[in-house]
């Protein structure tokens, strides 16, 4: 894919949808979240025609801050799982990306105070309309070293200034195989959908 990628979704949309475009403006991914499911279920397509399914993302439980999100390819084979980091994620968003039982990447919010301001403004009547103009949370995805510490930065997701539409940019900072790129992008998309609810 040609980076940076732009992620956008309509603020007032009833069904959560994300449109992903590459640096040349071509639509490369379309995300559609199914409504009224007790467990999170997200379908990821090549584009909005929904003719080519790329991945599915399914939560392992109804509501839990320690939920695992299973990422599968179009044939149902597991690509990876993304584990939300428990109650600590209320303060600072964190996901561990696993291949089997091995943590290979980690998504971490760069500055939790930024999102806190974003969320507080959202509590004010009509504040949601303006929070996108003032607060811009960012998130980093890094490889995980053998000792469990964060290693090389590979992707960064940043919320950009916007009004009616919410807009994020994904920049690439490290080399990724095709499988690794799928792992980190699917986790980033799931995180954006979850953070959408929190401001």
Question: What this model shows, in words?
Answer:
- With 199 residues, the chain is an alpha+beta fold.
- The protein has one domain: Beta Barrel (Porin), CATH 2.40.160.200.
- Helix content is 20%, strand content 41%.
- The protein contains 3 helices and 12 strands; from the N terminus they run βββββββββααβββα.
- The chain has a 12-stranded antiparallel barrel.
- α1 runs antiparallel to α2 (127-134).
- The two termini are 28 Å apart.
- The mean pLDDT is 84.
CATH class categorisation? Mainly Beta
Taken from the alpha-carbon principal axes, the silhouette is: globular
Amount of beta strand:
35-45%
Major sheet size, sense and barrel closure: 12 strands, antiparallel, barrel
Which regions have little confidence, pLDDT < 50, spanning 5+ residues? none
Q: If you average the pLDDT, what whole number results?
A: 84
Strand order of the largest sheet: 1-2-3-4-5-6-7-8-9-10-11-12
| Total E-strand runs | 12
Radius of gyration: 16 Å
What is the N-to-C succession of helices and strands? EEEEEEEEEHHEEEH
What is the helical fraction, as a range of percent?
Answer: 10-25%
CATH superfamily: LURP1-related
User: What is the straight-line distance between the termini?
Assistant: 28 Å
The CATH architecture: Beta Barrel
Structural class of the helix and strand makeup? alpha+beta
CATH topology name = Porin
Domain count: the total is 1
What's the number of helices? 3
Keywords, separated by commas or semicolons:
Porin, 199 residues, 3 helices, twelve-stranded antiparallel beta barrel, 12 strands, alpha+beta, globular
């Amino acid at each position: 894919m040609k980076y940076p990628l732009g992620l956008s979704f309509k603020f007032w949309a009833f069904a959560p949808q994300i449109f992903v475009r590459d640096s040349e403006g071509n639509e490369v991914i379309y995300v559609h979240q199914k409504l009224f499911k007790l467990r999170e279920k997200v379908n990821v397509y090549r584009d909005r025609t929904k003719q080519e399914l790329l991945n599915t993302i399914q939560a392992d439980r109804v509501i839990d801050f320690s939920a695992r999100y299973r990422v599968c390819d179009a044939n149902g084979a597991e690509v990876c799982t993304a584990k939300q980091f428990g109650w600590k994620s209320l303060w600072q968003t964190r996901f561990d990306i696993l291949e089997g039982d091995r943590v290979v990447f980690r998504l971490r919010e760069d500055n939790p105070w930024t999102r806190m301001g974003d969320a507080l403004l959202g509590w004010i009547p009509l504040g949601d309309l303006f929070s996108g103009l003032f607060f811009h949370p960012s998130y980093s995805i890094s490889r995980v070293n053998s000792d469990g510490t964060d290693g090389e930065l590979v992707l960064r997701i940043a919320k950009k200034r916007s009004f009616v539409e919410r807009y994020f940019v994904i920049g690439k900072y490290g080399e990724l195989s095709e499988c690794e790129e799928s792992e980190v992008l699917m986790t980033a998309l799931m995180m954006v959908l979850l953070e959408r609810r929190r401001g």
